[in-house]
Design a protein that fits this description.
Elements (H helix, E strand, L loop, with lengths): L20 E2 L1 E3 L2 E3 L6 E5 L6 E6 L3 H19 L4 H17 L1 H12 L3 H22 L17 E5 L5 H14 L3 E5 L6 H12 L7 E3 L4 H9 L5 E5 L2 H11 L5 E5 L5 E4 L5 H13 L11 E5 L3 H12 L20 H16 L3 E3 L15 E4 L6 H4 L6 E7 L2 H8 L7 E5 L3 H10 L4 E4 L18 E2 L6 H4 L4
Parallel strand pairs: 1-5, 6-7, 6-9, 7-8, 9-10, 11-12, 11-16, 12-15, 14-15, 16-17
Antiparallel strand pairs: 2-3, 4-5, 10-18, 13-14
Helix pairs in contact: 2-4, 3-4, 4-5, 9-10
Bound molecules: nicotinamide-adenine-dinucleotide.
């Protein structure tokens, strides 16, 4: 059989205008940072500098929180829910209309394949705003008392793996409930949040309801520590989550933390194996594995181990790594050189500890940050690659003999964000799901998201829920 090669199918970047520099979005307008610091945002697939963005210092954070407070007191807090809903619906529609532009911008700044930003991120971003727009005038019926009140000013800090989607998870419920926000995107992916600021202007959102301040960890710390912030919402690493929990301890601030994970994806011998292979690939290689709920620990029942592994390797050999803007690309660029270094270090530790790495033959581009999809076999539960979050396209494969052993191994982690079960028996799905200590359990699928469904973790994966009716609770008194 001849093997057909794909011709390049690049998405045009002409739809996106990127300015050479951006200020902070405070009080409805773009303003330069007080101390004048800047950060460069780089395209991880080419190392090209895309734009410079302002670095907000404590004085800028203060200015943004004051703008949010004024907007909360004078406009957004007193506004009836049905009026707030109109703004949210408008934002949702503009996002849907501008989704191609936003998808291209997201892929440029983040390195994720255009297929994913176009078909997964952007539809979910719009869906979140539509969903929470629908709640804005029905909060009295959400199960939190007849007249739930907003909290006030929300300080929100998000990571780089789903820049616009994490913004939507934070901003949509906060605004629907009547809060105003100051949001800090990650330092390596600020551009789609700044484009969202333009969308707020386009939607005529009252000034100060949404403020976007760019900067690195120090900006985030200044925001969560600001005394006039009522609510802190953070998504990111467990280490930073811990420092935020310490910073807010003893204050009146309400807090939700969405942190890391090391999910088990469990394949039983009665599972449809071809389908399971697709789920394993989606579970760990979607978004280069930069996914908090990634299925990064594969647990396979011993009787089907050889068959499953052979099928997984065959499938991995078809994955296309390369240009994120090519519509045929399955795996894009690693988001930053720092993240690439972390993936390399942990993989090297895996090798030194005695696990066996395997990657399909694939040619990585010369420029940019890349890591070939990799599986480690011969992994034991004590290995660091079985315990620590690698946050990259690296899968650790372990085996089990009985369902009880699968459950014990799956739960043997400090995290508890998600898990997957592959079996043809519905009764087994229910029995195993009941015993797994994870916020989300997927059955015969993986990495499925929906705005109506709550998402969040146990243990070191954080606390609080985002999404669904549950997600409203975090923003209501
Ligand atoms: P990170 O914790 O380093 O950074 C996250 C954000 O926090 C960034 O905006 C960063 O600038 C900011 N920050 C850094 N130090 C800070 C401080 N001291 N105070 C306040 N803010 C600070 O994480 P990351 O590397 O950007 O993201 C990867 C992590 O995020 C992974 O561990 C992943 O599992 C997690 N994550 C979790 C979820 C979830 O929903 N549970 C979703 C996506 C990502």
């Amino acid at each position: 059989m001849p093997r057909f090669e794909y011709a390049p199918a690049p998405e045009s970047r002409a739809i996106v205008d990127i300015a050479p520099s951006y200020g902070l979005f405070i009080g409805g307008e773009s303003v330069p940072p007080v101390d004048g610091g800047v950060l460069k945002s780089v395209n991880p697939a080419s190392e090209e500098v895309l734009a410079e963005v302002g670095q907000a210092g404590p004085a800028d954070v203060d200015r943004a929180v004051r703008a949010a407070r004024t907007a909360y007191r004078e406009v957004w807090g007193p506004m009836p829910g049905r009026e707030r809903a109109k703004f949210l619906f408008r934002i949702a529609r503009i996002i849907a209309e501008r989704s191609r532009e936003l998808a291209v911008l997201e892929s440029l700044d983040n390195g994720k394949p255009i297929r994913e930003s176009r078909d997964t991120d952007l539809p979910l971003v719009a869906a979140h705003f539509f969903y929470y727009a629908g709640w804005a005038d029905k909060l009295g019926y959400a199960g939190f008392g007849p007249d739930p009140r907003p909290l006030g000013v929300a300080g929100q800090v998000i990571p780089w793996n789903f820049p616009l989607l994490m913004l939507a998870w934070k901003v949509a419920p906060a605004l629907a409930c009547g809060n105003t926000v100051v949001l800090k995107p990650a330092e390596t992916t600020p551009l789609s949040a700044l484009r969202f600021a333009e969308i707020c202007q386009q939607a005529d959102l009252p000034p100060g309801v949404v403020n976007i301040i760019t900067g690195a960890g120090a900006t985030g710390a200044a925001l969560v520590e600001h005394p006039d912030v009522d609510k802190v919402a953070f998504t990111g690493s467990t280490a930073v989550g811990r420092s935020i929990a310490r910073a807010v301890a003893g204050t009146r601030k309400r807090t939700t933390l969405e942190l890391g994970g090391k999910a088990a994806n469990i394949v039983f011998e009665d599972a449809p194996l071809d389908q399971a292979v697709e789920g394993i690939v989606n579970g760990i290689f979607f978004n280069q594995g930069h996914v908090c709920c990634a299925g990064s620990r594969l647990l396979v029942q011993e009787s089907v181990y050889d068959e499953l592994l052979a099928a997984l390797k065959r499938r991995m050999a078809t994955l296309r790594v390369g240009d994120p803007l090519d519509k045929n690309t399955d795996i894009g660029a690693i988001n930053s050189s720092a993240q690439l270094e972390r993936i390399r270090t942990l993989s090297e530790i895996g090798r030194q500890e005695g696990a066996l790495p395997w990657s399909p033959p694939c040619q990585l581009p010369d420029r940019g940050f890349w890591f070939a999809p990799t599986i480690f076999t011969g992994v034991s539960q004590a290995h660091r690659i079985a315990r620590e979050e690698i946050f990259g396209p690296v899968l650790s494969v372990l085996t089990f003999r009985t369902p009880a052993e699968a459950v014990a191994k799956a739960n043997n982690t400090p995290y508890g964000l998600s898990a997957g079960i592959w079996t043809e028996k519905g009764s087994r799905v229910l029995a195993i799901a009941d015993q797994l200590k994870a916020g989300v359990v997927w059955a015969n699928t993986f990495n499925r998201f929906d705005p109506t469904s709550p998402f969040g973790g146990y243990r070191e994966s954080g606390y609080g829920r985002e999404g669904g009716r549950h997600g409203l609770e975090a923003y209501l008194a």
